Amino acid sequence: MFPDLTRDDVFRLETRRLWLRWTRLADAQAIVRLAGEKSVADMTAHIPHPYTPQDAERFIFAARQSNADGQGLQLAITPKGRPNALIGMVGITPGSEKGQPTLGYWLGTPSWGQGYATEAVRALIDAFFAYGDEMELRASTRVINPTSRRVLEKCGFAYQGTGLVEFPARGGFYPADEFRLDRRAWESLKSWGHTGLVREPAYEAEPVLELAS
Ligand SMILES: CC(C)(COP(=O)(O)OP(=O)(O)OC[C@H]1O[C@@H](n2cnc3c(N)ncnc32)[C@H](O)[C@@H]1OP(=O)(O)O)[C@@H](O)C(=O)NCCC(=O)NCCS
């Protein structure tokens, strides 16, 4: 799914406020503390609750393995200039259903409400379409998660419908809204700023010549 470029653990994405980098064993403590909060885990398909250090280590090894073989790209979200301070994760993995590339993300509660998830997701979407040749990306959110739904909408995802989606760490199937972003829609969004409305300079009336009487 991902090319050689992203398969090396020095790979990093930079945004205005963030660095997204491969996760590493030293992140385990932060992941346990942040992903271990029930309000975070409950909205996700794969984060168990309670969350143990062994769970975090297993996750980190699996994420690094899938990054290395190009089957996915899971990146730690860190503030720019402070790469050791993990605040969340964002990733694309082959979905359980037909292996379709699927987006997932979470942020620790201290970082909510500042636009970080949108910023991180946009960067990963750009990398996904710019570096790979897949045609579409999927995502789903529990119907009780309007914040996540809003993140997807701001990133250009289109709502596909509501159905029962498996959340293995929650122990079953839950009603979830399903979304999709295809390559053409992403290309269109990326070029919108260059091809859109041209703002004419404000019309300035010709000065009226005052005729001497
Ligand atoms: C979902 C999550 C990643 C969002 O992170 P975040 O950095 O706070 O998100 P952002 O600030 O980029 O965007 C949130 C948007 O949701 C909006 N929002 C917040 N609460 C909302 C609510 N109750 N209803 C509707 N919109 C809401 C915000 O206003 C913002 O939209 P805006 O920029 O148009 O105002 C974070 O809440 C989280 O980790 N939740 C738990 C795990 C999770 O849900 N993961 C996703 C699984 S699909």
Strand order of the largest sheet: 1-2-3-4-5
Radius of gyration: 21 Å
Could you say which overall geometry the principal axes of the C-alpha atoms support? globular
What CATH architecture label applies? 3-Layer(aba) Sandwich
How much helix, percentage-wise, in residues?
A: 25-40%
How do the helices and strands follow one another from N- to C-terminus? EEHHHEEEHEHEEH
Portion in beta strands? 25-35%
Q: Ranges with pLDDT <50 over ≥5 residues?
A: none
Largest sheet geometry: 5 strands, antiparallel
How far apart are the termini? 81 Å
Which structural class best describes the helix and strand composition? alpha+beta
Instruction: Please identify which CATH superfamily we are dealing with.
Output: Gcn5-related N-acetyltransferase (GNAT)
Which helices and strands, and how do they pair?
Elements: E1 12-14, E2 18-22, H1 28-35, H2 38-41, H3 53-68, E3 73-79, E4 88-94, E5 101-107, H4 116-131, E6 136-142, H5 146-154, E7 158-167, E8 172-182, H6 183-195
Antiparallel strand pairs: 1-2, 2-3, 3-4, 4-5, 6-8, 7-8
Helix pairs in contact: 1-3
The protein binds coenzyme A.
